[in-house]
Design brief:
The chain is an alpha+beta fold and 150 residues long. It has five helices and six strands, in the order E-E-E-E-E-H-H-E-H-H-H. The strands form two sheets. A three-stranded antiparallel beta sheet has the order 1-2-3, with no helix packed on it.
Amino acid sequence: MQCPLCQSEDTRVVDSRSADRDTAIRRRRSCPACGHRFTTYERAAVVLVRKRDGRLEPFDAEKVRRGVNFCLADRAPETATIDAIVNAIETRTITSSTDISADDIGRMVLDALKDVDHVAYLRFASVHKEFQGAEDFERELASLDASDDG
C-alpha cells in the first residue's frame, strides 16, 4: 500500500479489525519512511444484478434468502440447508467477473431447490418462470420426474 503523504511503497499494517457491520476490514497503517499513519478500508467488489427490465441493482444475499425461505415455508427445512443454498449462490455470484442476470440467479436457486424439496422448487419455478396455468405446473412436474429417473 502506498503512503498517501510520501508515496513510499513500503508501509506496514499496525492494526486490523472489522468495520461497517463486518462488510469491510479497517486497517491502520504506518509508513516507516515518513512516520505518517493512515487508515484504509477493504471491501469486496459490489456485484450488480441485471433485472429483467434492464436496471442494475447490487446483489443482496438477504433477498435470495427471503425467496428461498418463502418457497420453503411450512416445509420445515433446516436452517443449515437454507444457509448452504444462499452461501453457494452468493459465492458463485461474487466470483462472476461482471454483472449477473436475475435469471441466472433464479436458475441457481432452482437447481438448489430441486435437490432439497420439490414443492419448494415448484413454488419458486411458478414465479421465476412466470407460470400462467396448471399446464405449466404439470410440465414442470414432468420434467422433475424425468430428472429424478435419469
